[in-house]
């Protein structure tokens, strides 16, 4: 691939453009919003100039509802040898493109499973996709050269290609991406009118659950509008679970001992099913999740403290597998949880204590 056209210079489009430009591909940038093109170009993602002729790959990074029309327009104008979109919904745009008379041979739907709470070109980074799954949904009509160009793009972005059927992809993201977004927003919405005293008690649990609730509402409305059926199916099942959970909690509040036992059984069953589901979430490098041990350390809110504790762990010859930070409300300190292999936890604890760190059991 020597030339590319990125249509849509938001977070995903600009991040891909940065990765391509960094590998020497001449990238042309296009967007309805000229200011976003200028911003992306200033970041080094490519040029504002239109290409002189057909490019090797047109990357369509627009909302799902605009994908088919944008791809069809690019094909009619002969802008590229291949068209690839990166929208988070695949089945609908493919069918709409067929209705518009688009060419299925030179088109391939894709979806990089990466993103941030922030949007726009200023949030873009060339390493956004590194190590992340990038779904490709070729059909029997897809030209081999188009698939090869898509695989080259995925390799340049250092992502991991995953080939799926378009509709199977949409059902999958309804479960692992779209529904979590709505559930996070539902929990965060409960905080809107909550008493200030309650809000001040927020800890790491509520921060974890509501992190993605900070995402752009307009963008997510467009995404959910393109995949409403599968998301509604998942939420319907969640609603059934919620109804059962409410009944179990009401039973726990009953004066009848047998009802309380039934309620406790229902809650325990839910929590165990949650344990089982959580264990299926891939861990480090996509492998099965490991049972890491946590070493919790008190850390001050001063420049260089994170670097110092990581350096001390490195001097002890211990690899940090994961990390979490819990900030103390109203204090210039917090707790950092260093996740390590269980066998390494005692050595890390001893090494950090020797270097003056305060370990919390």
UniProtKB/TrEMBL annotation:
Its EC number is 1.3.1.12. It is an enzyme of class 1 (oxidoreductase). Pathway: Amino-acid biosynthesis; L-tyrosine biosynthesis; (4-hydroxyphenyl)pyruvate from prephenate (NAD(+) route): step 1/1. It catalyses: prephenate + NAD(+) = 3-(4-hydroxyphenyl)pyruvate + CO2 + NADH. This is Prephenate dehydrogenase. Keywords: Amino-acid biosynthesis, Aromatic amino acid biosynthesis, NAD, Oxidoreductase, Tyrosine biosynthesis. Pfam families: PDH_C (PF20463), PDH_N (PF02153). Belongs to the prephenate/arogenate dehydrogenase family. The keyword Oxidoreductase applies. Residues 294-361 form the ACT domain. Residues 2-289 form the Prephenate/arogenate dehydrogenase domain. One of its GO terms (molecular function) is prephenate dehydrogenase (NAD+) activity.
